[in-house]
Amino acid sequence: MTFKVGIPRALFYHEFSVLWQTFFDCLNAEVIVSGETNKLTVDLGAARVVEEACLPVKIYFGHVAQLPLQKLDYLFIPRLVSIEKKTYICPKIMGLPDMLNASGLAVPPLIKPVLNLVSRNSYEDFLREIGRFFGQDISRIKRAWQSGLQEQKKHESALLGDVNQAVNNTGSVAQDKLTILLLGHQYMIHDRHINLNLLEKLKLYGCDILLPCHISKETQAALVKKLPKSMFWSHGRVLLGSAFYFSSLPGPKGVIILSSFGCGIDSFVVNMVIRYLNKAKIPSLSITLDEHTGEAGIDTRVEAFFDMLCCRRIKDENYFSAYGQFLGHAEGAFGVSWADSYHAAPHK
Ligand code: SF4
User: Does ligand 1 lie within 6 Å of residue 58's CB atom?
Assistant: First the structure.
């Protein structure tokens, strides 16, 4: 018998779609994914979760509501606690199955295995829990997961290949071309409705665009290790690791940081990134997104940012810089001591 498994096109689906799809294919399950995010998705989701939830979580619930729930045998909603050694995922993502139970949506049985790589045997338990729903022995489940991991790795390697548009094989940016690093959660960057089509808008400026998925996780992790203390959140590792990598590339560049209103992690990780970029004298623009769908605000800010970057290339204007130079003449007042120690650390 073929089971139908529903997966919302939101949150970590944007990162692990290849792994999950391949895994369920190998178990002969039919995967049904919700469609692209639209206004109805946001409205449906906002009506199902507490007001304080961030936009991506609201959207997640909108996607659940838009799945053909009656036709599904199961809904896949893993409880992701830690997906890498010694780092954690946001508590809102850990709590998705509970929030779903409280949402009032009539959902099919949930496949909600816990993945917590901080604890031993978590992978084994995670796979056993999924196996329970498919009545298959654990070795078959493990093989299916391995196939998923292999496909995911290929997919991620192909994304690293994309970076050659901006960065050639020797690791240097074309000297005469403006490069923008777009930072944020994958589910913010790759959901056109959330980010008001920002990626397409940036392409119109003719710049090269670098995304965190273009920089290998190993590189990000290695660079973040040079911080005086460990980074607790996986997301922080990605953002800071990408910013550190980007700062070492030559050529004119700027960073745009997308964050979500109500995101606890972004509230301090983005601040760390901005302080680091200020220190490294890299112009940055921080955009916080919520349910508003008017594009004029974001268009104006992006346009102004590009104007500023271009002016900066043509002449060294005697104004406040976009990376905060002269603001209060007070590096110390901004508490950048960790950024100083990062710079002082030996870089390989
Ligand atoms: S990390 Fe931030 S944006 Fe993502 S789910 Fe958690 S609170 Fe929301």
Answer: no
Cα–Cα distance, 69 to 240 (Å, whole number)? 39
Q: Would you call 323 helix, strand, or coil by DSSP?
A: coil
Among 185-199, 305-319, 334-348, the range of highest mean pLDDT: 185-199
Q: Any idea which architecture 4-157 has in CATH?
A: 3-Layer(aba) Sandwich (3.40)
What is the rounded (10 degree) CA torsion for 160, 161, 166, 170?
A: 90
Chain segment 17-37, per-residue pLDDT in tens: 999 999 999 999 999 999 999
Residues of the chain within CATH 3.40.50.11890 domain(s) are: 4-157
Distance 303 CA to ligand 1 centre (A): 27
Supply the residue whose CA is at minimum distance from atom 6 of ligand 1: 90
Please state the pTM of the whole predicted model: 0.86
Question: Which CATH number does the domain 166-344 belong to among 3.40.630, 3.40.50, 2.40.128, 1.25.40?
Answer: 3.40.50
d(CA 22, CA 10): 18
Strand pairing class (110-111; 284-289): unpaired
Could you give the CA distance from residue 155 to residue 298 in angstroms, rounded to a whole number? 31
For a mutational test of ligand 1's pocket, the pick from 13, 54, 81, i.e. the residue with the most ligand atoms closer than 8 A to its C-beta, is 54
**Predicted confidence band at 226 (pLDDT cuts at 50, 70, 90)?**
confident
Report CA(223)–ligand 1 centroid distance (Å).
23
Contact 34, 84 (CB under 8 A): no
Bridge partners (DSSP) of residue 285 are 256
What's the rounded Cα separation, in Å, for the pair 119 and 183? Answer: 29
Alpha helix (H) residue ranges in the chain: 13-26, 39-46, 55-66, 91-94, 96-102, 122-134, 138-162, 186-189, 198-204, 217-224, 234-247, 264-279, 296-314, 337-344
Q: pLDDT digits over 192-211, tens only?
A: 999 999 998 898 888 889 99
Token reading at 184: 């944020």
What whole-number distance in Å separates Cα of residue 305 and Cα of residue 295? 16
3-class DSSP assignment, residue 188: helix
**Which two three-digit tokens encode residue 343?**
């710079």
